[in-house]
Amino acid sequence: MTSWVASANGHRDFPLDNLPIGIVSPTGGAPRPAIAIGEQVLDLQAALEAGLFTGSVRDAVETTGTALNTLLAHGTEVRRALRRQVTAILAAGSPAERLSHRLLHSAADCTLHLPCEIGDYTDFYAGIHHATHVGRLMRPDNPLMPNYKYLPVAYHGRASTVRPSGAALRRPNGQRKPASDPTPSFGPSRNLDFELEFGIWIGTGNALGEPIPIAQAADHIAGYCLLNDWSARDIQGWEYQPLGPFLAKNLLTTISPWIVMPEALAPFRVPAMSREASDPPLFSYLADAADQVSGGLDVALEASILTPTMRAQSLHPHRIARSNARFLFWTPAQMVAHHTSNGCALQPGDLLGSGTISGPGKGEEGSLLEMTEGGREPISLPNGETRRFLEDGDTVILSARASNGRVSIGFGLCEGTVLPAPPGA
Ligand code: CA
What is the pLDDT of residues 300-344, one digit of tens each? Predict the structure, then answer.
């Protein structure tokens, strides 16, 4: 199907097949809900005022302000109806084309905001190859912890430090204690890293005390984004025991600001990662036949780096990792079911991180920690530079693509640049 928005046809990220939703401000305008289409965005408020929405979609857009929480809370049926109505508005031959000057803004002229007011952010650890690579650095013979294949491990992150793509990362100060030093010192992190992750947006929540059954868990997911869980490895190594990640992780979390809806990813559903015969059986609260058949996602992921020297040499960003969402040992539905299995309440607009998604091989590691064997073996860049961890001025760019030969969609960018640490440490 083609669109009357010419730039959408064959667009790398945002053809008519995608239609991700977000919050944008056109130049000089207030934040408002919008849907990306090619090099443009469809202003949902303007479409509402033009009388283009009907029924539950009209009601949902009418009550949407500067965040999508309430819209996502309407759940799967309203989201699908929105998608159908927007598809009709933007499809070639639609009478809405004559209103294009009112309905569309150039994406280049828009500021993209966080799509939701994020009440809570939880980061999982479901990338099994990442867990294996990192575990091997500490426990060569027994990399995975005993709980890994019983439950999707996670920690509660910090919602206040999630930012949309483009936000700068100031190198954090913190306590660092290399193994060679008898005592810790306080100062700029020397081992700053990124993590290539998937983000999962919660739509309809659940009441406190009422777990979400695994068979219904997918209905509580409103969409997906890219997520970079910036990590200060030296701070992490000293602080994390016994309560887990803290200041090494809450310095900044960068996300791609468009929410890619589950309906856009439907053609890219794959079986959940297969379990080995020696793996423990799934607890029934994590087992659902449909989820096992199609709860996984085939989405290609990449991480690239652009250093200040590369920028000065007019070089393009260099890809340092290729991976795929297939390498998640736990499905998003299993994460939701497990998260609520004790009665914990999820709310509309909550954000879940998948955990770093690495592939099994070289060139598929989703963090520098893995690529450099804990910082011992620097990676080489095409211009002769090397990196153990991130230097000031380095930009990390995450991207994602789902493609099956017929449909190809992307997620937009998730990038950030490292700034020097604040003075005074
Ligand atoms: Ca992480």
Answer: 999 999 999 999 999 999 999 999 999 999 999 999 999 999 999
196 and 258, same structural domain? yes
Whole-number Å distance, alpha carbon 125 to ligand 1 midpoint, is 7
What is the tally of structural domains in the chain? 2
Tens digits of residue pLDDT in 284-305: 999 999 999 999 999 999 999 9
CA of 227 to the centre of ligand 1 (A): 9
Which residues are bridge partners to 105 per DSSP? 41
| Residue 87 structural domain | 6-112
Q: What type of residue sits at position 370? A: E
Catalytic residue among 11, 74, 129, 130: 130
Q: How far is the CA of 87 from the centre of ligand 1 (A)?
A: 35
Distance 124 CA to ligand 1 centre (A): 7
Same domain, 178 and 126: yes
Cis bond leading into 15, ω under 30°? no
Residue 313 maps to a domain: yes
Known catalytic residue at 74: no
What does each C-alpha distance from 342 to 76, 123, 153, 210, 281 come to in angstroms? 24, 17, 14, 8, 20
In a domain, 346, yes or no: yes
